[in-house]
Amino acid sequence: MRLLDLYKVETLDNRFASKTGESLPNTPPSRWKTPEYYFYYACFLTIPFFMFKSVYDISQPEHPGYSKFEGLLENGWIPGRKVDNSDAQYSGFRDNVPYMALVLILHPLLRRLYERWTSGGDAQPAEANGAAADARLQRRITFDLTFAVIFITALHGVSALKVFVILWLNYQIATALPKQYVAVATWTFNIGLLFANELSGGFRIANIVALLLPPQTSAAGSVPGPGVGEWIDSYGGLVPRWEVLFNITVLRLIAFNMDYLWSLDRRASSPIEKKNLDPTALSERDRVSIGAQPTEYTFPNYLAYILYSPLYLTGPIINFNDYIAQSRHPLPTTTRTTILPYALRFLLCLLTMELVLHYLYAVAISKSSPDWKTYTPFQLSMLGYFNLHIIWLKLLIPWRFFRLWSLIDGIDPPENMVRCMSDNYSVLAFWRGWHRSFNRWIVRYIFVPLGGSQSDVSKLRAAVNYAAVFTFVALWHDINLRLLIWGWLIVIFVLPEVLARMAFPAKKWRDRPNQYRWLAGIGAVCNILMLMAANLVGFVVGWDGLKGLVDGIVSSLGGRVFLFAACATLFVGVQVMFEWRESERRRGVDMKC
Hints:
This protein is 66% helix and 1% strand.
């Protein structure tokens, strides 16, 4: 495999691979060897160096602001460098990588030993006949459920009981209520669960005991030490705050109930048999919609799906139908030839993150309540830029780790991050490639049931649908005002792009492709600035921090000159993004993001 092939999207997720390899219609010839793009190459060879150097310089002990964030740094493994491990979310993953790597190795080995033992020594993949496929499904469900119980108990200790109670209640909603109440009850229960987990801190036993029983005092009038509630809570496992990571499970709970509800509308005959489909070679669309029969929505299958260990903590999200279909018939994408390049991509991303954390202390600087006036406009903008890149990497790395574990185990979920953060210029397309499995979940279970944004839906209704979607997305991430502002900013920022597409339709510029490409580049620069602003508000510095950054950039003449130069640089990057997508189309790949 060539190095360039390693960075093709088909290496990340075979779902994007072209079936024919032929170029898509109306794809222009390559521009990579034109004078225009040779100029862009020169920009790419020089400008990134200064971008990195700007943050490297303010991360040095000689910088006046170093003393403010020095306490947030730790000793690193690179000689002479400290590491910025101040992001609590990523540090929890980073500190436990060796233990998780051990589980990644042991879990698939234990499965193979179990399958060899239960199948009489023949652990080969199931053939097309139904009996062999059903036997494979049953073996996988049994192992998945058994391992999940052990895994969840180790993670959450006594709180595992809370998880099982929630799962049982959700299953009763799907299977015990009259059909007409299932959808409303499912959404009410699970959205209420998000709020309840946030407000109660994960239903701590100590809080429940304090609510039910009056506080006890000793004869001297003092409150005694920790009671039975605190004692029970102390056995919280490796991840005592189970509610923090439970939001991803809520998505699977909703997905199962809705898929079960929709399965009741099918006729008694199997859709696979009716359409004369090969069950060993179902398309992804068929696996997601008809991969499981109504009789397979059993409680053990439900528990095995919800608690499937490789995807339990962070996803990616796979729906019940697809999980059952792949458990019955493994996909060809779970072989060594496809997994090894993906594993190499993961290791390169992990190494990149380590280098960034050892040399660019952007997170620690932002967390130290800095005096923005001590930084130049260029340094301020690069602080924001690299903070966003670290957010991208801190999400990408766990998602790819757990997807790699799942691939090794024989289940192929969608890839969550299919574009680099710096390879996005469209607000709409950005959300198709960022947390992609969540985006697909939103489309299937929220956006399409609400009516979507098709031609028969009014623009006002489509805007309301977008607002509903991003309000849910914000609340799902965390229940706070900052993320609500982020969600509504995204909805607002979609509007200029939609209006621009209406005002400048591509079909009217077919005779002037270069002029249209340059015009689109100007609009894309505006989109990038809006995307950066929204994500800085939602995930990095908040609204006040963004105002401090912006004021520091535009309050001086030098800052305004820099802003113009930055926009010109973004324009160059956008033109390369355009051509990269055209090169994908020449391979027959259309990612729509």
